[in-house]
Amino acid sequence: ETIELHFALGSLFRRRGEVDRALRMHHNLVDRADLDDNKRQQAIFELAQDYLKAGILDRAESLFRELEKTRYAKPALEFLLELFQKEHDWLKAIDVAQRLTAVSGQSYSKQAAFFYCELASEEIAAGDPDAARGHLQQALTTYPNAVRATMMLGDMAISEGKFEEAAAIWKNIEAQDAQYLPLVAERLLNAYRSLDREADGVALLRDYLSKYHSLDLMNVVFDGVLKNEGPGAAYQLVRDELQRNPTLLGLDKLLEARLLEVSMERRADVELVKDLVHKRTRNLAMYHCAHCGFKARQFYWHCPACQAWDSYSPRRSEETGMPV
């Protein structure tokens, strides 16, 4: 008659952080001889969560694995996926993601691709580029639109001095998901510079900008146009983009371009306006996690706040309409 009360109290203790009391409560339930199979499975599931909360990961893993052929299979596998990510055991995480796909009917291929990228990062750090490439190719096989894997393959080509190959790899991002092109825009331009084909690089990025508006992409194109065609062309570029997509961040860039041409007697006024606009736009230039709302000035594939994968848009706050 006290079984349901035990479950309720055990869960309450765990939520309040009193993990020792939760463990005792759920251990008592598992040890009871009068429990039917369903209640015993429920007790094991609760006990495994207690161990996970307490950081006793080996015991938690063992108990969750006991439940893989029960009605708790899906939530047990989800907890195992969380556990292996905490341990950075990416091979086990990939295996669990594949089993979750089979159990739930929901695809976990995107998460598995990120785990392959993590494996590749470890191999790069260990000085084994061939193994890293293997993992990145597996990421793309598992999830063909794995932009991060494509970016990493291009970075590896750059590290080996293969600038043309790197540019060719990064161009594939347009077909995968064009909104991520701004993340490689500067790298693409630098690759073309290394090939003494900077004008071709600027032309490519201008074509991207005409099709996929992006403030970050515009900034890279602005620098290339300024260097190759001068302040007048750079100013006209930003002016045209601002007319097409009016934003405060674009206005800030327009004022920066205007300063390059303005006469000395009017420079102070333009600088004052630019400073005011720049202060107002600082928070508009953030990246946002769509899962928890965490704001950051740099782009993350894995949110440092909530640990969600691929929760950041590659576009700035003002472009996505997220609150500042």
Write the layout of secondary structure elements.
Blueprint: H1 3-15, H2 19-31, H3 37-54, H4 57-66, H5 73-86, H6 90-104, H7 109-125, H8 129-142, H9 147-159, H10 163-171, H11 173-177, H12 182-194, H13 198-211, H14 215-229, H15 231-244, H16 248-259, H17 264-281, E1 287-288, E2 295-296, H18 317-320
Antiparallel strand pairs: 1-2
Helix pairs in contact: 1-2, 1-3, 2-3, 3-4, 4-5, 5-6, 6-7, 7-8, 8-9, 9-10, 10-12, 12-13, 12-14, 13-14, 14-15, 15-16, 16-17
Strand content: under 5%
Total number of helices: 18
Q: Which blocks of ≥5 consecutive residues have pLDDT under 50?
A: none
Oligomeric form: single chain
Shape: elongated
Q: Class by helix and strand content?
A: mainly alpha
Terminal residue distance: 53 Å
Number of DSSP E strands: 2
Q: How much helicity do the residues have? A: over 70%
Task: Give the SSE string.
Answer: HHHHHHHHHHHHHHHHHEEH
Mean pLDDT: 88
Structure description:
This protein is mainly α and 324 residues long. Helices cover 71% and strands 1% of the residues. It is built from 18 helices and two strands. The chain has helices at residues 3-15, 19-31, 37-54, 57-66, 73-86, 90-104, 109-125, 129-142, 147-159, 163-171, 173-177, 182-194, 198-211, 215-229, 231-244, 248-259, 264-281, 317-320, and strands at residues 287-288, 295-296. The chain has a two-stranded antiparallel ribbon. Strand 1 and strand 2 (295-296) form a beta hairpin. Helix 1 (3-15) runs parallel beside helix 3 and helix 3 runs antiparallel to helix 4 (57-66). The mean pLDDT is 88.
